[in-house]
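Hey, I'm writing a tutorial for new members on how sequence and structure tokens pair up, and I'd like a real worked example in the thread rather than a made-up one. If someone can provide the structure for the chain below, I'll link this post from the tutorial.
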Amino acid sequence: MSESFVSGVEGGSALSLGTSAARNLATTTKTVPQMQGVSSRWLLRVLPWVQVSGGTYRVNRRLSYAVGDGRVSFDVVGGEVRVVPVELGELAVLRGFGDEEVLGGLAGRFRQREFEVGDVLVEEGRPVDGVVLLAHGKVNKVGSGLYGDRAVLGVLADGDYFGDVEVVEGVEEWDYSVVAVTSGVLLSLSRGDFEAVVAGSDGLREHVRRFVEGGHLPQNRYGESAIEVASGHVGEPELPGTFVDYEVAPREYELSVAQTVLRVHSRVADLYNDPMDQVEQQLRLTIEALRERQEDELVNNREFGLLHNADFRQRIHTRSGPPTPDDLDELLATVWKSPSVLLAHPKAIAAFGRECNSRGLYPPSVELNGHAVPSWRGVPLLPCNKIPISKARTSSVIVMRTGEESQGVVGLHQTGIPDEYQPGLSVRFMGLNERAVLSYLVSAYYSAAVLVPDALGVLENVEIGH
């Protein structure tokens, strides 16, 4: 019997109705259109959103004095590296000095040198011999601890510098050593060359004199103009008078926009709406793409993105390459006043997990908006695939404090706009053209603001390939 059944099927003589024909009478169960590009978008969910009624958000701060905390840029031609003359103004000693001819003379006296892993670039106790600019590579500043042990005082990388203050203040010996962690290239300016240029320029000589003798304006540890306060006194001494000075030109953030025109043929909109509304599904997927672009802009936009708006003093480097627990501790220390959240690329989180596993550490999860998420020191560590990965397989980790009341990072949007579909997002019908195509303008308005510099910290050059 089984043999006749098999032969009948093989010969094309089916004994019952096949599934391909039966589907003509069946109703197919469908899903809504799926989209692989949709992510968790944790950044949009954890940012407190501030209503910006006028389209512009002004951040008023106390007056701060520039202290030369930027990084120096270089021109690279073949194997030759030259410092950009005007970039020397990023050095603390030369901050505010604008004579390009003199800066060009200084730039021309720098000498290039390559170094390898383990090289001692300067040695503690040796004479201070000049200014050093790091064009490429990573080094550790190492000094003596309180009990005689060696401690890493800081990590320097591309664009950082040292020795400028020691030269102008007449320091005779290095009080720290600088040891290369990777190979790289540096530019050095000898003490004699620097003093020769200073001696030949009245303007530079006066600028350096003001820096050494009176250039340090009264300010607190954050560079803000000081508020004079008396304490611990007895009797009736004369109390100091003071006032709080403000920035004359505070920064303003204008709302950015992401837009697209959604087109749907009227025949599709009219006839093919059962069981799902075609226009609604088209809008849903379009809005998902806009929200993904919005989060990408909040991370990477050069005007208001988090990676580009972190203060240089708030940017640190890994000690060895991959993100270790020690590195995340250092990162949390940059935003030590109530850090709210850590953001990293999923691959960077995986790299951190490997480092924890190698040390036998198992960071606990915390609950956030009903989800169990990984954490470090109780601070949620959230995935954000908008944080870029370089060709060298390095990325960044962001930590931030959020909220206006905490002087943190806030998202900016405007609600109540015409044809609003979601908060800060509008869908405006643009009409029907001669080809019977419906058009909808979909617009999202947004930005982000860092209220004070220590609300945002970035761990840079995180290796994820180990």
